[in-house]
Structures are given as C-alpha cells and as structure tokens.
Write a structure and sequence with these properties.
mainly alpha; 59% helix
Length: 191
Amino acid sequence: VTNFCFFFFFFLFQGKRYPSAPKEKENEVLLREYRACCALLDEWKLDDASGAKLDERSRALGGEPQWIRNNCEVISKPSLLKAHDWMLLIQQGGDYILADLYPDDPHKMESLYALIAVCNRILTEISPLDSENREQMDQIKLQTIEALSLCEASFPKTELCIMMHILMHVPDCIYRWNSVRNFWCFFGERY
C-alpha cells in the first residue's frame, strides 16, 4: 500500500508517469491514443504552487516523536521517504495533505479520498481465526470495488494497472490470515 501511494499518487501528481511513445511507423490510431493518454495525464499533473503546498503540508506534519519524522517533502524529496513515512502520511495525514488538491474537479478528489479510505481500512482490519466475519470482509471488498470503480472513472487508463486490481484480493487475504501483517502483502512489487 505504501509503495502504491508513492509510485502512483505522487508520481502522477508530478507528471512522471508518461508511457513510452509509439514509433512513428506505428499505426496512426496508436499515436492518437498515445496523445489522448498524455493529455489525460497532464490533467493530473500539479503546477508548482500545488506541489509546494503538498510539500508544506507534509513538512507541517513532521517532527512529533513517534510519528512522522521531520522534513518530509512528498513532491520535492519523495525518494527520502521510507515506506513507514508514506504509511503514516497517508494513514494519519492523507486527508489533510490532499485537501483541495483539485478544487475544480470533485470527481478526482472523490476517487482519491475513496482510495485512501480503503487503503487505510485494509491496513487496520483484522479477522481473528475464531470469528466468522465473512460479511465484514465482504463489506471491505465492496468498499474496495467502489473505490476502484471511482478511480477507473477518473484516473487515466495508464494508471489502472494490475496493482489497482490486486487491492481487491487483500480483503480475502485478511479473512484467511487475520491481518496484512500476517501474510506476504507485496503482491504489487512484482509488477
């Protein structure tokens, strides 16, 4: 989940997620689709002021002992953040950091918040061995599907890779093995 936030959200915000261009001798349809894809990616790219606002908000959260460390900058210095930093930033400060990021597009904000909410729920949910909480796990799975559907409606198609789909399987793993800490939860690292 933490790598997901780093490699998808913040690279998308910085405009670092462009696909390779097709070769000139390729089909004109491919070139047209490539240009349309790049235009959609440009809609998600943040301007310098918005990037600075994200850095300022992430820095403001840092410094408390046993919480987020000092000088976290999600846009200008993302490679200095460790997985634990990303997890804390998203779990504890995701709503604050991402607030009014796209004020003119409520659909983008709704999809981001839904995805953050489902990631946070997945990280904290448990399923003890002696409980029959299949209905609860099905509710988490439904919330995951709804969040991914919102993302599919608003994210560029290039961002809807296998890692997005893999989130659907995490509730089943929680049901089988109790918590994300109890199983290999790095499915997406293979992709």
